[in-house]
What we know:
Elements: E1 5-8, E2 17-23, H1 27-32, E3 35-37, E4 48-56, E5 59-69, E6 80-86, H2 89-101, E7 105-106, H3 111-118, H4 124-134, H5 139-149, H6 152-176, H7 187-206, H8 208-216, E8 218-224, H9 230-238, E9 256-262, E10 265-271, H10 281-295, E11 299-305, H11 314-323, E12 328-334, E13 349-351, H12 360-375, H13 385-406, H14 411-429, H15 435-442
Parallel strand pairs: 1-7, 8-10, 8-11, 11-12, 12-13
Antiparallel strand pairs: 1-2, 2-6, 3-4, 4-5, 5-6, 9-10
Helix pairs in contact: 4-5, 6-7, 6-14, 7-13, 13-14
Amino acid sequence: MAEAIVALSTPPxxxxxxxxxxxxxxxxxxxxxxxxxxVRISEAKTHTIHYGEFHNKxxxxxxxxxxxxxKPNSYTGEDVAEISCHGGYFVAYAIIETLxxxxxxxxxxxxxxxxxxxxxxMDLTQVEAVADIIHSSSEQAYQTAVRQLAxxxxxxxxxxxxxxxxxxxxxxxxxxxxxxxxxxxxxxxxLKSIDETIAFCQELANSYHSSEILRxxxxxxxxxxxxxGKSTLFNALLKRKRAIVSEIPGTTRDYLEETIYIxxxxxxxxxxxxxxxxxxxxxxxxxxxxxxxLAQSNLILVINDLTQGQTHSDALFFELRERYKASRSILIxxxxxxxxxxxxxxxxxxxxxxxxxxxxxxxxxxxREELRKETQHIKDVLINQRHHxxxxxxxxxxxxxxxxxxxxxxxxxxxxxxxxxxxTLGEIVGDTFSQDVLNNIFSKFCIGK
Length: 449
């Protein structure tokens, strides 16, 4: 029996509408105790909407509509009632409290989607796609998550699983006819299936980094010596004044982070404290934080004050480029408006005047190019850490099966490795799962989803 649960499905606060979702056995009877309309909700047809009054202990709470979704054709696979009322803090919570008084309990984070998974309405990759849609920070992330929710990734997993299972089954069948020497499947066909699946796993596992960019944004760290123009560039890219700019060294002691959008991608700009020797305790802490911020940056812009000389920040630039090899590093020669002539440009630098917005288009184009390179291979799925680890494990199991097959080892050994790979691929979509995995996935959901 599915206990009736209820929660607010829209963001709390002032709004035109609020939507309360209730799901589980007896939920229509619970709503009937509070709702007065032309039709009793327990008698209403599925996928219909009904207007009426919502009451609590004889008092009118609000005029509402109730959408009816009967199992199994609902989001959770259970009987679902969705109540739309006026927005605001009081009305929605008054309705939720009334439903709890009549037999519902408050849903846990992600419990509606968890029930959808447990009732077979979606697999784990689709569950994760729901979370990715909700938290999408870019258009491409949203579109990819929608395709994942539609089941494109799940279908590809199912296709590879079937080929591997067919191969394993025929290899095991040959064991029953070992004396007759029958061969039920060509070894080249098995090798082809294994190689295609390995390539599939490798391609997707390699897209983990790109998926994280779509999911969390592209991080651009701005670093350099004090008074080089880091905060001025930060403000210029934002097209508004966010960071305090002054000629006093050490003005930026903490870091600032803001998001801009370039071609639909979320770009997270980080303005860091100036790097220098100092005895100021607060400034020292800000400089220490720079290291962790640059470590998570995809692109590092090292700002140099060109009035101090073209090579003034070279040592710092090469040190940061060597230390953070996983990131792209570019030397930004700032304040070209204050020098008589522009030096010859080297291949690792860009000349700008952040104060006059001169050359900013070159930085924006650089970010565009890096984003295109980083995300061009993303298609039907946003790979997360769970997928990444399972895909790598499946690839290793398949390589072992391939080696066993080429070395002419027994059918039972090859089939066993193939079945292990199938099981691992099945874990991706949730054929098997642990409670810890579910708890981790649904901990990222809001209560109403």
